[in-house]
Amino acid sequence: MSEEKEKIPEEANKMAEEHFSHKHKEDSWWDIAKFALTVIAIILPIRFYVIQPFMVSGPSMVPTFEDKDYLLVDEISYHFQRPARGEIIVFWRGEEKKYLIKRIVGLPGETIILDGENVTVINTEHPEGLLLDQSYIHNKVQMQKQTYTLDDSHYFVLGDNRSVSYDSRGWGALPADEIVGRPIFRLYPFNMITVWPGEHLL
Prior knowledge:
With about 200 residues, the chain is of the alpha+beta class. The protein has two domains: about 1-50; about 55-195, Umud Fragment, subunit A, CATH 2.10.109.10. The protein is built from two helices and twelve strands. Strand 6 and strand 7 form a beta hairpin. The termini are far apart. Mean pLDDT is about 85; it is low at about 1-5 and about 40-45.
């Protein structure tokens, strides 16, 4: 009789331990699930509305950016301020169905004159024309003389590697609503990690 009495507490303890272990596992999985959901809730809005990763494809922005450079693009600043001349932007080129990266040289309402190596801007501040500083370009090329007048919602963009870049010279001015944002970090290659990479206000 006494042996049976001793077995009952032992079995009860064992059942209690198994119940506690099972409950502890359930709590652990629930904690992990809550943490994962919290991370997703934070990261998704950042990914889709604040920061977008972008990998440079091709040599059109050499020497500023090389093929396969990995960038983070600020998607929110241009909701509060207009893009400035000299800023590098990432935009969606609808006709080609892909993202591209170029530098802004012409702002809405301006007239842009390309002539040889030179880019001249005519606007209300510089009615006689402003010759842009293009010291960021290592290998300048002779461009065919062309004149472009921009309306109030378009920008003129060029690649830094003018000899191979397909840009506003080929397909015209860029609509403002196609601009995604501007690079704020270069994360790769690791020896070229940079904040505000390629910034050169003209």
